[in-house]
Amino acid sequence: MPRMNLSHFEAAVLFALFTSVVMGVVTKKTDADRIRYGARCFGYFIAALIGLGWLMHFGHG
Hints:
mainly alpha, 2 helices
């Protein structure tokens, strides 16, 4: 079985994608609401990822 060599950023984006899909599927009733909510959650995850990354960058000097 081939090994996956993901960077921290790639692993975080993959986690955000899978988590957003699951949250959209289990929390909303219609397909349109699921897609909209999943996309919004994914956007929030990515914004938090980038924001926290910059915060850590400036915090470590």
